């Protein structure tokens, strides 16, 4: 069977990460995603290198590795949206699309006659998703912003990092642009919901995604503590605000994460450590007690764990059914037996020659599995193909648009 969304066409007017992550998710599920890019420059992230994608001879191309992370399974067309003829092409494409995703500043596309109200008049069934920093409304709606800003402004950095009183302490951003990725995922969910609603109403709708909204929602379980107590949660480093022991511990030759989420797991940990005293200590017999006395408890656990290497503890912890694991770099991740078994690395032939490696989708559908049809496209790789197949343009018309630098 074809992909779950193989009957859906998506017009992708996004760049950088949040929007492209949403459209790549749809593309992985089978949608025909047409990525509209600026002539010459293209998506900003094409230039976010080094490292660069290599051609068949191993030489660097003009496309960054970063760009490949979020643009597979898409076709690229270049259109100058500042030109009336370019705007007309996008309107033609939107008239036959199911979904349009854009991440322009609030009001920018409307000035070109490409806003939601403009395109809804042409195609009432169109699901139109806007991705911006602060959403379409409110006092900050016109402000720009990137993931880093929202990790700070939305509270994530206020709970991420070691305590201020410890060496290296202070707020720390997450190593991945998590606000962008999460917004892309929420956008994809919203689009799928709107498509399902369209099956009932026959009409599309406007989806308003804000990065600040997303990162605030992401903090829900920590925010619940604040709502309950009135006290904002703070920095706890690699510990958990509600659970203990639930953090990395030093061993004789490295570190290992131990995550005990209930009393039974804690008792088994004490058995593995041969520390009956910790199991019998009344301070540590409940999760609440362990959380309140975490510093003393974790110091005792680490004292014992430093007596043996990581490999010794890893085997014993797993045998005892205690969630635990190493802290891997990405080289180690892709040597991990489970990661290899699940096929989390996919190699795709690149149009410029050579092979582009991408991270597989985590989605596993039994009847409509994700397919890796297209490598991340070169800039404008499919312009003529799309204009001919989708809009029925003649070769002469395409040549004329190219001469005028509309495409």
Please describe what this structure looks like.
- Keywords: Transferase.
- This is CaiB/BaiF CoA-transferase family protein.
- InterPro entries: CoA-transferase_III_domain, CoA-Trfase_fam_III, CoA-Trfase_III_dom3_sf, CoA-Trfase_III_dom_1_sf.
- By secondary structure, the protein is an alpha/beta fold.
- The protein has two domains: 9-217 and 340-403, 3-Layer(aba) Sandwich (Rossmann fold); 246-328, formyl-coa transferase, domain 3 (2-Layer Sandwich).
- It has 18 helices and 13 strands.
- The protein has helices at residues 18-28, 65-68, 84-95, 108-111, 116-122, 147-153, 178-201, 211-218, 220-229, 263-273, 276-280, 287-292, 294-305, 310-319, 330-333, 337-341, 383-389, 395-403; strands spanning 9-13, 32-37, 52-54, 60-64, 74-78, 99-102, 127-132, 206-210, 246-250, 255-259, 324-325, 345-349, 355-359.
- A six-stranded parallel beta sheet has the order 5-2-1-6-7-8, sandwiched between helices.
- Helix 1 packs across helix 7 and helix 7 (178-201) packs across helix 8 (211-218).
- The longest helix is centred in the middle third of the chain and has 24 residues, at 178-201.
- The model has no long low-confidence stretch (mean pLDDT 95).
The average pLDDT value, as a whole number, equals 95
Report the sheet with the most strands, covering strand number, pairing sense and barrel closure: 6 strands, parallel
* Helix percentage: 25-40%
Please give the alpha-carbon distance between the first and last residues.
Answer: 35 Å
- CATH C-level class of the largest domain: Alpha Beta
Reading side by side through the largest sheet, how are the strands ordered?
A: 5-2-1-6-7-8
CATH superfamily of the largest domain: Crotonobetainyl-coa:carnitine coa-transferase, domain 1
CATH-derived architecture of the largest domain: 3-Layer(aba) Sandwich
CATH topology of the largest domain: Rossmann fold
